[in-house]
Write a structure and sequence with these properties.
The complex is a heterodimer of chains A (295) and B (379). By secondary structure, chain A is α/β, with parallel strands linked by helices. Chain A is built from nine helices and 14 strands. In chain A, a hairpin with a 3-residue loop joins strand 8 and strand 9. The two termini of chain A are 24 Å apart. Classes of the chains: A alpha/beta (295), B alpha+beta (379).
Chain lengths: 295, 379
């Protein structure tokens, strides 16, 4: 079944006609995603050919939904226009907005996050690689060809670490991998994904990847203790990051004692989650847990 | 990006928040001249982007220009938590009747800003928050409503601040929104013996993502930042996402998470990473050459570890980038490359074919880190 995204999902791409939008729409189609349209008010009525498929361009998200029944949008529009794009999608009643765009001012994220909540739209991102349910659908920029369908669910702040774990566990496979993004404000949290994976009959084990900054992993640990019965294996990056310095992700900043990798690891281990010291060790722990549960 | 205290003070003043009269100086002589203009008696304050300046001896009162010169000489050049003091701010002293605390900070878990206010401001606000959380008022701000005069009055009253502090709260909200700040803090906000409400010290963190619409600081932020490290300045000029660290293994990788993980794995092998450098997609020879040249110019680096996972960008493209970069950069230290993911075999073959004597390959991240640590220690 997977979470948030299945082969039934009908996907719009806001910013499809831009460079990144074109490149990744082609990749999404190749991964089996049902991309039903692009959105660009200046190119409405035209269509774009991707190999053997012509994808129509709509003038608005509303028009795209009316014509196709789309329930997911992937947002590639530049940072200055992302807030308006997400609010437009929420206004049109889309169920899921996956915001890939990097570099959105945090005040804009705060506004569209609150706006989407009021309209019942789930936002994933911003500054995220999106999500993939291998063999079914891919919404975003995660490479689809490095893994296969399976029974592990993965939630991560980081893109390349997600890919690394997907690849390490390529023979095991995944139900869904969600890159929630590393910005200080994200629409979908580790806890949201844990809840969805716990309820998903096709997910047997959950991998949680975190990194320094904020207290999302600590809160996830408390949630796991109360509400998650499936095995969880975790990896945390940023043990050697210096205090008070930002390292790429706007969210990955340590100040003071809270938010350190050590604090996150301790919080997770305290509730029985195994935490790998390296991505490779984390993959090994996953295989061990799966072997135990299938015995 | 954090502002210096004097920059925050100027912003506050512009938004109508009362602040003490002050000047900035980068030498003891200039500090003395400033003190003379400010009436002789001043507080000399180290300008560094670190907390705990007072406890470190970086904030001192001086009663006349001669004393100011002496004090400034002591403070300039001082090291506070790894930051060298290059400037001091000279501020007119204030008769303090009471100290308060106000700030707006991002609550990541709720995705909105919080107003934080306390009637017990001063140096130990963290301790107050930890030991008596009831003395610190936290109010979530609705992003569509912001902080009106009424809302500010409500917060001030509930926190036990004087009524006039509501003006500070509204002005501070305007700073947060209009300047695209992620944090604005006044600590302490004081009531003077004369009954004025004054921002005595402040901290402002601007959102780097908003630079495209914030022209005040220019595209690269404040042009004048004497604290920036030489290597970091060189990397920034090339548009690289680079942070200098203390170790000997130079690190290049793609994606912030993977690079952070690489630093940890290097540390786990008993070596210390010399830097963080995320080259993103990373296929271009230019960015690889730029990254290598910055890392190789770091005298503490004795080995370099390039850790790339080929996802969207395939490994053969990355390998071509490395080979072309080696045409323009003279490699002086051993380089361990780990390519994995899409087209890893082709990528590895390209590097093998180039056959540079200082380039080695490893197939796993852990193995490559161990090798880089060995080479770094052998050097």
């Amino acid at each position: 079944m997977a979470i948030y995204l299945t082969k039934e999902s009908k996907v719009l791409v806001q910013g499809m006609t831009g460079g990144e939008g074109m490149k990744h729409t082609r990749r999404m189609l190749a991964a089996g995603t049902d991309v039903v349209g692009g959105v660009n008010p200046r190119k409405a009525g035209r269509s774009v050919d991707f190999d053997d498929r012509a994808v129509p361009v709509f003038g608005s998200v509303r028009a795209g939904i009316d014509a196709t029944g789309a329930d997911v949008t992937v947002v590639f529009v530049p940072p200055a226009f992302s807030k308006a794009a997400v609010m437009e999608a929420a206004d049109a009643g889309i169920g899921l907005a996956v915001v890939i765009t990097e570099g959105i001012p945090v005040h804009d994220s705060v506004v569209f996050h609150a706006y989407a909540q009021r309209h019942g739209t789930r936002v994933i991102g911003p500054n995220c690689p999106g999500l993939i349910s291998p063999g079914q659908s891919n919404a975003g920029i995660i490479p689809a060809d490095i893994t296969k369908p399976g029974r592990v669910g993965l939630v991560s702040k980081s893109g390349t670490l997600t890919y690394q774990l997907m690849y390490e566990l390529r023979d095991t496979g995944f139900s869904t991998c969600v890159g929630i993004g590393g910005d200080p404000v994200v629409g979908t949290t580790h806890i949201d994904c844990l809840t969805a994976f716990e309820a998903d009959p096709d997910t047997e084990l959950i991998v949680l990847i975190g990194e320094i900054g904020g207290d999302a992993e600590e809160r996830a640990a408390a949630y796991i203790k109360e509400s998650v019965s499936k095995p969880v294996v975790a990896y945390i990056a940023g043990f050697t990051a210096p205090e008070g310095r930002t390292m790429g992700h706007a969210g990955a900043i340590v100040s003071g004692t809270s938010g350190t990798a050590r604090a996150k690891k301790s919080a997770l281990e305290a509730v029985g989650v195994q935490v790998g010291n390296t991505p490779t060790e984390t993959a090994r722990l996953v295989l061990e847990r799966l072997a135990e549960t299938s015995r | 990006m954090d502002l210096y205290e004097y920059q925050a003070r100027e912003l506050f003043e512009e938004y109508g928040i009362l602040v003490p009269r002050a000047e900035v100086a980068d030498s003891a002589k200039r500090a003395r001249a400033s003190a003379e203009r400010l009436g002789g008696r001043v507080v000399v304050k180290a300008q560094v982007k670190a907390g705990g300046r007072g406890k470190a001896g970086g904030v001192k009162f001086a009663r006349d220009p001669a004393a100011v010169e002496l004090t400034a000489r002591q403070i300039l050049g001082m090291d506070i938590k790894g930051h060298t003091v290059r400037e001091v701010m000279l501020a007119q002293p204030v008769d303090i009747d009471a100290e308060f605390y106000v700030s707006y900070v991002l609550d990541r878990s709720q995705g909105r800003f919080l107003a934080i206010a306390s009637a017990e401001g001063g140096m130990d606000i963290e301790e107050v928050a930890a030991t008596r959380p009831e003395a610190v008022l936290r109010t979530a701000i609705d992003p569509f409503e912001g902080v009106s005069r009424e809302k500010a009055a409500e917060i001030a009253a509930a926190a036990g601040l004087p009524e006039a502090a509501a003006d500070t709260l509204t002005a501070l909200w305007n700073v947060l929104i209009r300047e695209d700040a992620q944090l604005v803090e006044v600590n302490p906000l004081v009531r003077t013996a004369q009954g004025q409400i004054l921002a005595l010290d402040g901290k402002v963190t601007l959102d780097d993502n908003a630079r495209f619409r914030q022209t005040r600081w220019g595209a690269q932020g404040p042009a004048h930042d004497p604290e920036t490290d030489g290597l970091e300045a060189a990397a920034a000029a090339k548009g690289l996402n680079y942070v200098k660290l203390d170790g000997e293994v130079g690190v290049i990788g793609n994606g912030a998470g993977l690079v952070m993980s690489t630093l940890d794995v290097v540390a786990g092998c008993g070596a210390r990473p010399a830097n963080f450098l995320d080259i993103g997609g990373g296929a271009s020879a230019q960015i690889m050459a730029d990254g290598l040249s910055v890392i190789l110019s770091d005298p503490s680096v004795t080995a370099v570890f390039v850790n790339v996972f080929g996802g969207i960008t395939a490994c053969d493209a990355v390998a071509h980038g490395i080979v072309r970069a080696l045409e323009s950069v003279r490699l002086t230290k051993p380089l361990v490359v780990r390519l994995d993911g899409n087209n890893a075999a082709r990528g590895r073959a390209i590097l093998d074919e180039r056959g540079h004597p200082l380039v080695e390959q490893a197939t796993t991240m852990d193995g490559a880190a161990r090798r880089a640590a060995e080479l770094a220690h052998a050097a």
